[in-house]
Specification:
mainly alpha; 2 helices; IS66_C; Transposase IS66 C-terminal domain-containing protein
């Protein structure tokens, strides 16, 4: 866990936001594209605007 948190911090990413997003979407994410979820490639999904 520590290495995941430090890696996120080294990539200027909020570790809590990154880990929460990755855990929420990893089950439905294609295996061939898992590299997209790594901290150095990760892009946060835009927050849905409340109506």
């Amino acid at each position: 866990m520590y290495s995941l948190i430090v890696t996120a911090k080294l990539n200027d990413i909020d570790p809590q936001a990154w880990l929460a997003d990755v855990l929420a979407r990893i089950a439905g994410h294609p295996v061939q594209k898992l590299d997209e979820l790594m901290p150095w490639n990760w892009k946060a999904r835009p927050q849905k605007m409340a109506a």
